[in-house]
Amino acid sequence: MSDSATGLYVNGQWEASSAQVLVRDKFTGAELRSLAGAKAADVDRAAAAARAAAATPLPPRQRAAILEHVAVSLARDGDALARLIVQESGKPFKDARAEVDRAVETVRLSGHAALALHGETVPLDASPGGEHRVGLYLRVPVGVVAAITPFNFPLNLVCHKVAPAIAAGNAVVLKPATTTPLSAVALVERFAAAGLPAGWLNLVVGSGAEVGDALVRNPHVNFITFTGSPPVGFAIKAASGQKRVTLELGNNSGNIVHQDANLPAAAQLLARRAFAQAGQSCISVQRIYVHAPVFDRFQHLIAEATAGLVVGNPLDPDTDVGPLISEAEAERVEAWVQEALAGGAQLVAGGTRAGAMMAPTLLTGTAPTMRVVSDEVFGPVAVLMPYARFEEAVAMVNQSEYGLQAGVFTQDLHRAWHAVRHLSVGGVVINDTSSYRADLMPYGGVGKSGQGREGPRFAVEEMTELRMAVFNLDPAALAAAKTSDEGEGTK
User: Fold this and answer.
1) What backbone phi and psi angles, to 5 degrees, belong to 422?
2) Residue 259 near residue 291 (C-beta atoms within 8 A)
3) Are 442 and 458 in contact (CB under 8 A)?
4) Closest by alpha carbon to 210, among 43, 342, 397, 62?
5) Which residues contact 146 (CB under 8 A, 6 or more apart)?
6) What is the pLDDT along the chain (491 residues), one digit of tens a residue?
7) What is the set of active-site residues?
8) End-to-end alpha-carbon separation of the chain, Å?
9) CA 330 → CA 77, 165, 363, 469, distances in Å?
10) Fewer beta carbons below 10 Å: N end or C end of the chain?
11) Could you say which DSSP state residue 313 is in?
């Protein structure tokens, strides 16, 4: 980040503001940077600039070239960007470095999607009265995209919204999380350096109550893409009016371990993915249903794997689990654990807290109504529950208002296919955890997990409109039109 990058970027210019957003190191508490905070009036100016910019289209080749330039820049500065992510989010360095690599892939895939954007012909002569007619449809940009992003992937989830929007030919107003805006500032700088014209990407940092609400309600905005909590997401949907909306809202991810699975491998994977990023991921492993005949053995294996995780300073390359985004969030997670224990749950591992650091926590003996089971913990907590029959486990996973992704460990193809067919989620991952995501795949959920799909190709489709064109090539109609034209020419 350069010193000139204030955090408020409108129509190609960094601007000052009387409002300030202070960003702190999530492990040490030290001040990292003070940014210019946006007001509602700044949001209006940014949206107007985006509207004006989108009126002069960028050809797909230019959009793809800009995105490739940004991808190269991100890859070149990978270590520095990873350290920035660690400091502003508390994410361990190994996970932050992986996030930068994923962001490179997301931007690059978006560039490819820009070049592959196309329509199709429609066989109108297959319909009665369609003789002599030719039809085709195009995909055209929606116009202005409002991108509202969370703290847990401060670079890659910004890229998942901004890069496809630009690939589709839309201008963008970006509002990152106020706790982690520095990665977004660094990304905006790279788009400017890549030659993206003024107005095509604008940045406003500020509270959801003022900046987010102004963005959602702005009449220049045509499309809203949001990642965050269900209450906020559905409030955005309610306030969006005629705007189209993509919502990625969360999960209390269910995972099934059948007795025929590779139990040691499953235990290692599930422990790592339950507690990576301190459990602050929409698809973090939370509910683990284990076949009763192997329950005790698996509990021992996953407890052993959990004990082997390194908890501490996220800048240490050996650290597996760092702090939560704030001490208040850690206190909330601790309270949920204590509530479960008071209700009869048993502690298998963890359960302790020091400031914003929460030890990786495993529980068993939980009830379906406990919040650590029924809601999204968004912290380093996972629960172990036995089942008798595989179909029962599938039904237990489906006993949730969420439906983002689920993991299933089994060597039986028929069980795997049963899970794919019957789990009410957006993605089923076989022999891996609910946390698996490749950036090119369609990603999204059902129910309280949201609507729409991310992944560059699929986000581009969400952020475009179909425009149908019909040509009447009836010789009689053409002859009549020609006669009419000739008649007008003699007047």
Assistant:
1) -115, -15
2) yes
3) yes
4) 43
5) 47, 172, 173, 175, 215, 216, 218, 221, 223, 224, 225
6) 787 899 999 999 999 999 999 999 999 999 999 999 999 999 999 999 999 999 999 999 999 999 999 999 999 999 999 999 999 999 999 999 999 999 999 999 999 999 999 999 999 999 998 999 999 999 999 999 999 999 999 999 999 999 999 999 999 999 999 999 999 999 999 999 999 999 999 999 999 999 999 999 999 999 999 999 999 999 999 999 999 999 999 999 999 999 999 999 999 999 999 999 999 999 999 999 999 999 999 999 999 999 999 999 999 999 999 999 999 999 999 999 999 999 999 999 999 999 999 999 999 999 999 999 999 999 999 999 999 999 999 999 999 999 999 999 999 999 999 999 999 999 999 999 999 999 999 999 999 999 999 999 999 999 999 999 999 998 876 776 666 666 665 54
7) 248, 282
8) 67
9) 32, 34, 17, 55
10) C
11) -
Closest CA to 259 of 368, 393, 362: 393
What's the alpha-carbon Rg for the chain, to the nearest Å? 25
Angle at 438 between CA 165 and CA 74, to 5 degrees: 60
* Separation of alpha carbons 354 and 359, rounded Å: 8
> Three-state SS for 17?
coil
- Cα–Cα distance, 359 to 361 (Å, whole number): 6
Strand residues in 399-449 grouped as ranges (E): 402-403, 405-409, 427-430, 446-447
Q: How far is CA 142 from CA 33, 146, 165, 332, 449, in A?
A: 35, 11, 9, 40, 24
Residue among 445, 17, 480, 19 at smallest CA distance from 250: 445
Alpha carbons 91 and 105: distance in angstroms, whole number: 20
Q: CA 237, CA 231: separation in Å to the nearest integer?
A: 10
Whole-number Å distance between alpha carbons of 407 and 420: 10
Q: Which two tokens stand for residue 48?
A: 């107007």
List the domains of the chain with CATH numbers: 8-249+449-469 (3.40.605.10), 254-430 (3.40.309.10)
Helices (H) and strands (E) in the chain, counts: 16, 24
